[in-house]
Design brief:
The chain is of the alpha/beta class. It has helices spanning 5-11, 26-35, 67-70, 72-81, 95-109, 124-134, 170-177, 197-200, 205-212, 217-224, 240-243, 258-261, 278-295, 304-308, 312-320, 328-334, 340-353, 357-360; strands spanning 54-61, 87-92, 115-118, 142-145, 158-164, 187-194. The chain has 18 helices and six strands. A six-stranded parallel beta sheet has the order 1-6-5-2-4-3, sandwiched between helices.
Length: 376
């Protein structure tokens, strides 16, 4: 609808018009002005997007790092503090990542009303209850969400924003980061990312500079909007780059983000265990044999077991150790299964038998491009 305003202006170009937006980088401003047929001489009034009470930190994790390892520090803090944990909002571009992260917390912590997920596929009744809780000092300690939760939601008592992966546009990062510290209290923005195409593709260059440049992150942010940066004192409250330069005598210095202090070690699946009875093991074994039959091509001279890897021995191993198997990654790591597609199908069977499928049944391919979506 707004894209047609420019057509109306072409008819009455003498009518004054003002365009207002909360956050807009220079590149986006140019698009807006072109769409609305603004003249080059139009007056632009802008303010700095800088929030001096928000410290910006980035953490590059290995490309093969699992989500549960990347958020091991937060899982540890949640287990320690429970309802006393400061509120954290985790933004991700992918609905699949949100669902996986929620599943990890269910696996590591158990079911709890203190963490929730919010995305465009969340049922409306659940969205309303989350909005109500997040607008006050409610029960939710960790909200895992896409940009759907960044629109029209007033996050109260929020002083910790986390981005798992980079949003595509600087404006989105600034808007989501700005959900923290609205009461003026010191807050943290943490960007967790991988240096591969999944996290850096189609991302604005200035966003990549924020996480990878050796300059002050706040300086990079302000320069991308053409505004001056204000020095934050003490330096350790500015960003993780400036933190290393700080020489103040404050007892909190350097005040490193907990995520950077956490030693990422592989969390073995064997530490996780669900309760399993003989009836459930039998159900898993029977359904895996049915899967084996579906995957087998009996018209070939090659043993079908060699094609899909789901032999009777592998099926028995899975059934005997099913209490430790939650995700496709668990299966690939612990069983003699070499196909990721087969491991996904096995995981679906296990999660369906134990009632976990609602947490794991969202695939990346289903929602790759719908994160700037219907709640905007």
């Amino acid at each position: 609808m707004f894209s047609h305003i420019g057509e109306l202006r072409a008819i009455r170009s003498d009518v004054p018009i003002a365009a207002l937006t909360a956050t807009s980088a220079p590149s986006q401003r140019r698009k807006i002005m072109k769409s609305l047929c603004f003249r080059q001489s139009s007056v632009i009034i802008s303010e700095s997007p800088d929030r001096e009470n928000i410290k910006i930190t980035s953490l590059c994790i290995p490309n093969n790092c699992e989500i549960e390892d990347a958020f091991g520090w937060l899982i540890t803090e949640f287990n320690k503090q429970k309802e006393k944990l400061p509120r954290h909002i985790i933004f991700s571009e992918s609905i699949s990542d949100v669902a996986k992260l929620y599943a990890i917390f269910r696996k590591r912590v158990g079911k709890s009303c203190m963490f929730e997920m919010f995305h465009s596929k969340t049922v409306e009744s659940k969205k309303e209850s989350i909005r109500a809780d997040m607008s006050k000092k409610g029960e939710i300690r960790i909200l895992m969400c896409t940009n759907s939760a960044g629109m029209g939601v007033n996050f109260a008592d929020g002083h910790n924003i986390i981005h798992y992966g980079l949003p595509r546009e600087m404006d989105v990062l600034v808007q989501q980061m700005g959900r923290a510290g609205r009461d003026g209290v010191f807050s943290n923005e943490l960007i967790i990312y991988k240096c591969h195409k999944g996290h850096l593709k189609q991302v604005e260059d200035e966003l990549v500079r924020i996480v990878k440049d050796t300059k002050c992150k706040r300086q990079v942010l302000c320069s991308s909007y053409g505004t001056n940066v204000k020095k934050v004192k003490p330096l350790h409250m500015c960003c993780d780059r400036c933190e290393k330069l700080c020489k103040c005598d404050n007892t909190n210095c350097p005040e490193t983000h907990p995520a950077l202090q956490f030693k990422m070690v592989g969390m073995e699946s064997e530490s996780m265990k669900r309760s399993v009875n003989d009836r459930e093991k039998t159900a898993v074994r029977q359904r895996l044999h049915a899967l084996k039959f579906r995957l087998s091509d009996f018209s070939t001279v090659v043993n079908p077991d060699l094609v899909h890897g789901l032999s009777d021995g592998v099926i028995d191993h899975i059934a005997d150790h099913v209490e430790h198997l939650f995700t496709p990654e668990d299966i690939l790591r612990s069983c003699a299964v070499w196909s990721y597609d087969v491991s996904v199908q096995i995981s679906d069977i296990i999660n369906d038998v134990f009632g976990d499928s609602i947490m794991y049944d969202i695939n990346d391919s289903d929602f790759d491009n719908d994160e700037y979506d219907d709640d905007a």
